[in-house]
Amino acid sequence: SEQIPSYSQYFHMGLTSSDVVDTALALQLREAMEIILKDVDKLLEELKRLAFEHKETIMMGRTHGVHAEPITLGLKFAVWYDEMRRNRERLLRAYENISYGKLSGAVGTYSNIDPMVEKLALEELGLKAEPVSTQIVHRDRHAELLSALSITATSLEKFATEIRHLQRTEVLELQEPFTEGQRGSSAMPHKKNPIHAERICGIARVIRANLMVALENVVLWHERDISHSSAERIILPDSTIALDYILNLFLEILKGLVVNKERMLKNMELSYGLYASSKVLVRLMEKGIERDRAYNTVQRCAMRSWQEGIPFETSLLSDEEVSKFLSEEEVKEIIDPRGFLKNVDYIYKRVFG
Questions:
Q1: Catalytic (active site) residue 67
Q2: Fewer CB atoms < 10 Å away: N or C end of the chain?
Q3: pTM assigned to the model
């Protein structure tokens, strides 16, 4: 009133505090989400670049942490790209659903203010009116926002965890950037630890925990209490800032990511070519062998490779039953890892158009 003396008689006329605070909160959250969405777009651009750069970079695909079948590193980045695209859609929906304000008075009935005032004011602010409010804008909107932030953070944790696994000494196929002068351990000078990926994982846990608070905030007494208010002063700024931080941190990791193609190929040899077991199984079935019989035959050869440490190809060619149906040329063709990747272009077209 002191700052606008000519209009002081109109200031806060017919309003309750939440009319101002909740409407302003919508504007703040929209601005925060606009920053986050821009960062997501930058991340999507980098993931797409990496996906095409490493479209032909062969590596071992793993299930349960165990060698499964060959994939390419580009496919891994394509998976991350597609997931981040879904996250963008979630964030955008949350952005739209948080873009609501209210200027409807103490319990939302416009008892002391004309609804037209709300309509004109919110249009000026670029917001929509809560169709039926109480003293507040309903907190399911804010919970949806926290849900979108949490799922996005969890995706980043998923990607960061993969990098952490692939940076293990026994694997060492990927490494996050390690700058000159950086120290991995105060006690062990040789260490290159995936500290940035680990930081992403830790912060994602905090954001997910904040989602639980946002869900608790949906339930308020009657037309409103203030049990949500104090909690929101922590979870809303903390979660938006934290997600923005780990989005940028992950982008830095990707831009400096170290890819060890030679180690990828070397690691594939650790399982003696057993990644081809499924193709051998299918080929034997195509030759007319009943599935269980074919499975037992291939498993017998695979277990021999494991136990004796010999190439799967050798085990197959020396097996009497397999040799009745598959020639040496057929076995070599089946074991070629490139045969597993014949439909990569189809997948890329589906993801990137």
A1: no
A2: C
A3: 0.93
